[in-house]
Design a protein that fits this description.
Blueprint: E1 3-7, E2 10-13, E3 23-28, E4 31-40, E5 43-51, H1 60-86, E6 94-96
Parallel strand pairs: 1-6
Antiparallel strand pairs: 1-2, 2-3, 3-4, 4-5
């Protein structure tokens, strides 16, 4: 399970056996959610936030923080996905403790 970011206590990661579409999991305590990236001609056209089956979803301020982060870091998340799943490279973990705004 490659961990790619921690943002204000929210851990963002991929499971090692992932599938398309490109997506990232966000976990805070017992809460978990995913963000799916829909890419057209090399650009993120849409991001869909979806619950994880059997998990309580992020809500409130943590959901807002997650959405803000994936909106601003979406291209970097997609690049890490490609590096890990396509090129089989290790991905660097980054911790961000200050709000992006």
């Amino acid at each position: 399970m490659p961990k790619i970011y921690e943002y204000l206590g929210i851990l963002l990661f991929f499971y090692s056996n992932e599938h398309e579409p490109v997506h990232v999991h966000g976990k805070y305590n017992e809460f978990e959610i995913t963000a799916e990236f829909y890419i057209v001609n090399g650009r993120i056209e849409e991001i869909k936030i979806k619950p994880v089956k059997g998990r309580r979803p992020l809500s409130g301020n943590k959901l807002i923080d997650f959405k803000d982060f994936i909106t601003q870091y979406g291209n970097r998340i997609v690049a890490k996905w490609i590096d890990y799943f396509v090129y089989h490279k290790e991905v660097e973990f980054e911790r961000i403790n200050k709000p992006l705004k």
